[in-house]
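Entry 14. Ran structure prediction on the chain below.
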Amino acid sequence: MICSIPQWSRSRRPSVTTDVQNQHEETSASALPEKPGATGQGAGDKLPFWGRITGRKGYQGLVEFLFGSERRQFFLLASVPFVWVLTQHLGPVLQMLYVSFLDAYPVAVGAETHLTLKHYQLFFQESVYRMPFMRTMFYSLTLTFATLIIVYPVAYFLARHVKRKNQLAFLLLLLIPFWVGEIVRTFAIMILLGNNGAVNLLLKSLGFIDRPIPFMYTGFSVSFGVIYLTSLYMLLPLYSALEKIPENYSEAAADLGAGAWRRFRRITLPLSYEGIASGCTLVFLISTGFYAVPVLLGGPSTTVFAETIAGFFHVAGDRWPTGAAFACILFLSSLVITGVFMKFMGRLSGRGRR
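Output, structure tokens:
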């Protein structure tokens, strides 16, 4: 007996293929973006503010113009530091140079100024001004060398004998005193070297002295202060140069029979010339311009050129051009000495690496 399937049941049988196609069409329709007029709001209204800005043709054209080539990128990035150096560093120096040639400054209302060289001539005519200048150069050169001798062993120990994981901790310990201002550290030196300071009390308790030693307001106190305040500028370049020297260089030299002194003289020292040059340059330039340290720690016999220059700016009248001229003399002399030293160290470094 053959049973026939009713027509209504065949028409209502679900079709798997049709359901899959319907689901695919619904998914595709939901993935399509809405038309701007579909909901009454534009697509741009849903973007954030910065997205609307970057989507404009004017913004895209500006970005293309500024960053379209490597040369434009270089000039754009270099413009900010160039303007900073020009306005904050080179500008004041040029202004000081201009003032040094004026016969009077500040200029009175209605008065005329003329260019002159008399302020520079005064430096060479009066020995009272040349002596502080020579003392400043002598102090700076001597104390730069003394700072190098004192700080080099510290940097060598830190870079070659302290484990790498502990080097940062040691550096932080050495840098903690320099988180305080220069004036505060100078007053700390005054307390340390005073008649009732820690140094005199220690020497007296050990029986070396019966009365306090007058350390203050002498060349020793000024030298101590300058070395202490500039040691950081010598330490960091030296440590950076010594830390980069591969240890296998010294190990290879030791295997060949070279002693400790010969390894240091032939390997470590020549490879650290760049750090020595950088550290000595920084210490020398800073030492020539120190003002607070000689004023607070020095006396009449330790007057430096920075104090002489400051004296011209502390008085009323037309002495500012003289102070500006003396400042230019100090600045140019320091640059000449630094240039000669850097050239010498460059040749020495070239010979040491051959």
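The domain at 127-352 is CATH 1.10.3720.10 (MetI-like fold). Will compare against last week's run tomorrow.
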